[in-house]
Automatic annotation (TrEMBL):
It holds the Pfam family HTH_18. Residues 169-255 form the HTH araC/xylS-type domain. Keywords: DNA-binding, Transcription, Transcription regulation. This is AraC family transcriptional regulator. The keyword Transcription applies. GO terms for molecular function: DNA-binding transcription factor activity; sequence-specific DNA binding. It comes from Actinophytocola xinjiangensis.
Length: 284
């Protein structure tokens, strides 16, 4: 069993925000791969050590934020006796919570100290001082809600564009989406990337990949996944999986972070994988 995982008993009051608590069991392997997904990831570390390495080879210790669709070379190179709270933000919410900084990450990561300075340390210290996960989830939710409430609103067209991409599992055609919004394709492309950090076509590709890879983890064969998720053929699916993860459809299903997604984030699928993952849900 790699981690103890604790989930909130109620959803965040901020739509587009999910969170889960992770506790190390002392057997987290080095070089752990993080799988890209269509959300901005915040990691708040309040116990032990997590050292991350990005595609450039730069290492960071402590809490960090990873941009939308971070690259396949982004890994945990060392994780020792850690406790952390992982928060996933939809790109629309991330734009508000991060003050627009998420659009500048370009699939990379920065430490929370770089982003928020002393505020990041204060939040981690407060999390560590609390005795239950429910208290930690409540604190994080209040913090996220407060940052969002004080942020300037995003253009409704960009918000609608993201919602359409997510609702269609990446299947909407971008030129049709621009017509729906009453924008030119060029304007949609520019505003979407400036605000959310990826061009709309890339965002749609990421959303489709996310649904496809979870279909594979759930046991669906590659041919069925390719057909159901709108890929031209299995080779098309293979190229996307390799582009986002560096792996093949056959090997990506064994990645630990995908194996726990049904527990931590509510994806349908097996409750455990080869006995390596268990969940400790918060008491109802």
């Amino acid at each position: 069993m790699l981690w103890d995982i604790t989930c909130p008993t109620r959803p965040s009051r901020v739509p587009g925000v999910t969170m889960a608590g992770f506790g190390d069991r002392g057997i987290t392997p080095p070089g752990l791969r993080l799988i890209p997904h269509p959300a901005v990831t915040l990691i708040l570390v309040f116990g032990g050590t997590i050292v991350m390495e990005d595609a450039s080879g730069r290492r960071r210790t402590g809490g960090f934020v990873a941009g939308l669709g971070f690259g396949e070379a982004f890994r945990a190179v060392r994780a020792e006796a850690f406790e952390c709270l992982q928060i996933r933000l939809s790109p629309v919410v991330a734009h508000a919570v991060l003050g627009g900084a998420s659009a500048e990450l370009d699939g990379a990561a920065v430490t929370l100290d770089e982003l928020w300075g002393r505020e990041a340390d204060r939040v981690s210290e407060r999390l560590g001082a609390l005795s239950t996960w429910e208290e930690r989830f409540a604190l994080a939710d209040d913090w996220i809600a407060g940052r969002r409430a004080s942020a300037a609103p995003l253009e409704p067209e960009v918000d609608r564009a993201w919602r359409r991409i997510a609702a269609t599992r990446g299947g909407v055609r971008i030129e049709h989406l621009a017509d729906e919004l009453g924008w030119s394709r060029k304007r949609l492309w520019s505003r979407f990337q400036t605000r959310l950090g990826l061009p709309p076509k890339r965002a749609a590709k990421l959303v489709r990949f996310d649904h496809a890879v979870h279909g594979l983890v759930a046991g669906q064969d590659a041919a069925g996944v390719a057909a159901d998720r709108g890929y031209a053929d299995q080779s098309h699916l293979h190229r996307d999986v390799h582009e986002f993860t560096g792996l093949t459809p056959a090997t990506v299903v064994d990645e630990p972070f995908l194996a726990v997604d049904d527990v931590a984030w509510g994806w349908p699928g097996p409750r455990s994988v080869a006995g390596s993952v268990t969940a400790a849900r918060a008491a109802e």
